[in-house]
Amino acid sequence: MKLVIIGGGHAAAQVATSLRQHKFDGDATLVTDEPVVPYQRPPLSKMYLSGDIGAERLPILREQAYEGANISLKLGVHANSIDRDTKTVSLACGSTLPYDKLILATGGHARRLTCKGADLAGIHYVRTMADTDAMRGEFDHAKRIVIIGGGYIGLEIAAVARKAGKAVTVLEATDRILGRVVAPEVSDFYTQLHAEEGVEIHTDKLVTSIEGTDRASAVRSADGDRYEADMVVVGIGLVPNTDLAASAHLDVLPQGIQVNAHCQTSDPDIYAVGDVAWFRHSFYGREMRIESVQNAVDQAKVAVEHMLGNDVSYDALPWFWSDQYGLKLQIAGLSQGYDTLVTRGNPAERSVAFFYLKDSKMIAADCIGRIAEFMNAKKLIASEVPVTEAQLLDERPFKEIAADLLG
Ligand SMILES: Cc1cc2nc3c(=O)[nH]c(=O)nc-3n(C[C@H](O)[C@H](O)[C@H](O)COP(=O)(O)OP(=O)(O)OC[C@H]3O[C@@H](n4cnc5c(N)ncnc54)[C@H](O)[C@@H]3O)c2cc1C
């Protein structure tokens, strides 16, 4: 079998690992337009940005592991188009790769600002290692950093910048940070945490222009307020890289490449996995795209197994993490649609779990410094057992409470 994998992130690397585990004896080629082997993105806004780890710690697998799995690497090469009639992929370097099966793990790119001044120097995005390298070049000298976007990436960068002694301002367009993904109580926790650490967070600040002559020197919001900056970092979301799939006339929506439960696109010989895939999650009963390492890894596993003839479907429970000021947030499940929030622990002590319930069942949990709650919340969510607020607030260790609930 001839397999072509397009992508250089967690999903592509997991395809390689799974091929090795399944002793794949076909002929595989991995094509990525980044000049390096697939690497971990989470440290780009955390320990790699802070300098706590170097570039040598980022690769997910060493180059030899690809050789060991019989995978040829084409690094720094963009895949231009797919011809589904001849089953070939055309590469920017001029060569053409034939395939029997194709896996698209093309991820996404950072959403760009479009306002006046968006092209000025000194404005940074964080999606690739090259982005963080470019940012670090200016980071050491910058005294005032304005971050546009109060999502996880913006807040993680704020935490690193504060630790490095910068004056940090976060501008969020909506009425609270992390508004898309967490309850107001969790937004309040992070607002308070950043305030205590000295970050200024301003909500309801729609950015309308970046000012400066040759480089950004201030950010202006719709209400006329102006924030001076030596450097601007933008974290306003991700746009899935669907162009290649769309030009091959696969089913593509603005939200991502449509795939079924086996991660197959509308062409059964082409799979799409990771940040780029738009799918129906069987547990939550709705369509979604998930931007997380867990999702990229688990979908890649399903695609490889299915491609090799096993009848597997994707139904993994989503989980995610974020690190800010040495505090680990671990998130299990998806909280949208909850009707009750239960707070276990003490936000003031920076050790707290927020449980999201719907119809008396747990659907998600945000756990801050609470590993037992996170591990057991995953089991409670998957089991769909009924839970009450009183049970979740029982003072016994959470492991014991969960064991009783799970029977
Ligand atoms: C700064 C940052 C922090 C994060 N922190 C966390 C975290 O704490 N926890 C967590 O779970 N997740 C985190 N994430 C998200 C996580 O990194 C992504 O969900 C994950 O990387 C998705 O992997 P992927 O392989 O689907 O896509 P990507 O990692 O986006 O990889 C796609 C690759 O495909 C390449 N490509 C695209 N089109 C082509 C083409 N036509 N030809 C050749 N190559 C192409 C791209 O250049 C890229 O290398 C973070 C992401 C970022 C950017």
Automatic annotation (TrEMBL):
<keyword id="KW-0223">Dioxygenase</keyword>
<dbReference type="GO" id="GO:0051213">
    <property type="term" value="F:dioxygenase activity"/>
</dbReference>
<keyword id="KW-0560">Oxidoreductase</keyword>
<dbReference type="Pfam" id="PF07992">
    <property type="entry name" value="Pyr_redox_2"/>
</dbReference>
<dbReference type="InterPro" id="IPR023753">
    <property type="entry name" value="FAD/NAD-binding_dom"/>
</dbReference>
<dbReference type="InterPro" id="IPR050446">
    <property type="entry name" value="FAD-oxidoreductase/Apoptosis"/>
</dbReference>
<feature type="domain" description="FAD/NAD(P)-binding">
    <location>
        <begin position="1"/>
        <end position="300"/>
    </location>
</feature>
<dbReference type="GO" id="GO:0005737">
    <property type="term" value="C:cytoplasm"/>
</dbReference>
<dbReference type="Pfam" id="PF14759">
    <property type="entry name" value="Reductase_C"/>
</dbReference>
<keyword id="KW-0285">Flavoprotein</keyword>
<dbReference type="InterPro" id="IPR036188">
    <property type="entry name" value="FAD/NAD-bd_sf"/>
</dbReference>
<protein>
    <submittedName>
        <fullName>3-phenylpropionate/trans-cinnamate dioxygenase ferredoxin reductase subunit</fullName>
    </submittedName>
</protein>
<keyword id="KW-0274">FAD</keyword>
<dbReference type="InterPro" id="IPR028202">
    <property type="entry name" value="Reductase_C"/>
</dbReference>
<dbReference type="InterPro" id="IPR016156">
    <property type="entry name" value="FAD/NAD-linked_Rdtase_dimer_sf"/>
</dbReference>
<dbReference type="GO" id="GO:0016651">
    <property type="term" value="F:oxidoreductase activity, acting on NAD(P)H"/>
</dbReference>
<feature type="domain" description="Reductase C-terminal">
    <location>
        <begin position="319"/>
        <end position="396"/>
    </location>
</feature>
